[in-house]
Design goal:
Pfam families: ABC_tran. It comes from Blastochloris tepida. This is ABC transporter ATP-binding protein. GO terms for molecular function: ATP binding; ATP hydrolysis activity. It is globular, with a radius of gyration of 18 Å. It has helices spanning 46-53, 77-83, 100-109, 115-119, 127-136, 152-164, 182-195, 208-214, 232-235, 239-246; strands at 8-17, 20-30, 35-39, 61-66, 70-71, 85-88, 170-174, 200-204, 218-222, 225-230. The two termini are 32 Å apart. Helix 3 crosses helix 5. The longest helix is centred in the last third of the chain and has 14 residues, at 182-195. It is built from ten helices and ten strands. 35% of the residues lie in helices and 24% in strands. The strands form two sheets. Strands 6-7-8-3-9-10 form a six-stranded mixed β-sheet, with helices on both faces. Strands 2-1-4-5 form a four-stranded antiparallel β-sheet, with helices on one face. A hairpin with a 3-residue loop joins strand 4 (61-66) and strand 5. By secondary structure, it is α/β, with parallel strands linked by helices. The structure holds adenosine-5'-diphosphate.
Length: 248
């Protein structure tokens, strides 16, 4: 695998905390427009990997390239966000007292776009732009409600919408369906599949039925390295994976 033509390229990435190797020569290549699911038991290094990509944690060793050219190990979190890497953390953080539409409006205003320069003076974002995002995350009918009134799942979608408003090249999503109903989980798989037609996506997730529903290539981490990679039916049948993850 090569860095050229990849949206994300990790090679030999290691991170130690007080001598403990959270990532151990981890390698991962994501093609443009690809959605990848990352699985693995607790402590496998999934969060640390996301932290390395977003600049929250600096690797001790290894290469981390974005779009084949940008060396992410040299950039801070704000610079990495400005390149077009958006991260959705596990817990939803929306502006509860603002309407659903205003949450998207705020996201469309900045911080990473020249839109703020365009619209900032008039302090106005076209409703069309807001509705376009809201329809992508299935919240158009809820546009006038306070975000605090949404269900847990809907808040997760709203926050994903706020990230989409920034038009990221790469979207990192951490355990999106934790705490969701079965119906919301199914809708989230569909929603992410739609998003992946326009953005590259990395999803960390424990819920195997959700990962199956995504239908994308899966990487299973264990002890900071890739244990298995491929189609979910192949990875989930891998004896080593069953031993460390599914069989517990
Ligand atoms: P996962 O997200 O797959 O559960 P993590 O990346 O959170 O795994 O953690 C990998 C390992 O690194 C764990 O054993 C965890 O305890 C350890 N770890 C993560 N962050 C830190 C930190 N800031 N300080 C010390 N140890 C950490």
């Amino acid at each position: 695998a090569s860095a050229k033509g990849s949206v994300l390229y990790l090679d030999g990435v290691s991170v130690s905390f007080d001598g403990f190797r959270a990532l151990n020569e981890l390698s991962l290549v994501l093609a443009p427009g690809e959605m990848r699911a990352i699985i693995g038991p607790n402590g496998a290094g999934k969060t640390t990997m996301m932290d390395v990509i977003t600049g929250k944690t600096r690797p001790d060793e290894g290469e981390v390239l974005f779009d084949g050219t940008h060396d992410l190990t040299m950039l801070d979190e704000a610079e990495i966000a400005n390149l077009g890497i958006g991260r959705k953390f596990q817990k939803p953080t929306v502006f509860e007292f603002h309407t659903v539409a205003d949450n998207i409006r705020l996201a469309l205003k900045g911080p990473r776009t020249t839109r703020s320069a365009l619209f900032g003076a008039r302090n106005r974002i076209p409703d069309d732009a807001i509705d376009e995002v809201l329809s992508r995350v299935r919240l158009i009918e809820h546009r006038a409600r306070p975000a605090g009134d949404l269900s847990h799942g809907q808040k997760q979608w709203l926050e994903i919408g706020m990230l989409l408003a920034q038009d990221p090249k790469l979207l990192l999503v951490d355990e999106p369906v934790a705490g969701m109903t079965d119906a919301e989980t199914e809708d989230t798989a569909e929603l992410l599949r739609e998003i992946a037609t326009r953005h590259s996506v990395v999803v960390v997730e424990h819920d195997m039925s959700f990962v199956r529903a995504l239908g994308v290539k899966v990487t299973c981490l264990h002890e900071g390295s890739v244990l298995a990679e491929g189609r979910i039916d192949v990875v989930s049948a891998d004896e080593r994976v069953i031993e460390v993850y599914l069989g517990r």
